[in-house]
Amino acid sequence: MSFVKVAEASDIPIGKMKSIKMKDKEILIADVNGKYYAIGNRCTHRGGDLSKGILENNVVTCPLHGAKFDVTTGKVVSGPKIGPINAKTKDGIIYEVKVEGNEIMIKVS
Fold this sequence. Notes:
By secondary structure, the chain is an all-beta fold. Helices cover 0% and strands 50% of the residues. It contains no helices and 13 strands.
């Protein structure tokens, strides 16, 4: 496994996100207080595009049904809400990130 450059640090300001495609993967990179994290960009509930959601501190909210994920761990903070139903969903995939100079790199297998 090796690290691959996916973005420049200047591409993702603090508190913002960016989605990237790498091979067959869609990955969301988030800057939380100057530290970068990477998780799968698709919601594990119905495949919503998390990059179109809202990032508040370290939690991204899916724009489809409101599932919330901690971008630092990939863990579900709360499941999707569909009317009065709170559906269950699984944790997201996380990717190891490192920064060298201005380059954001993700470990891929």
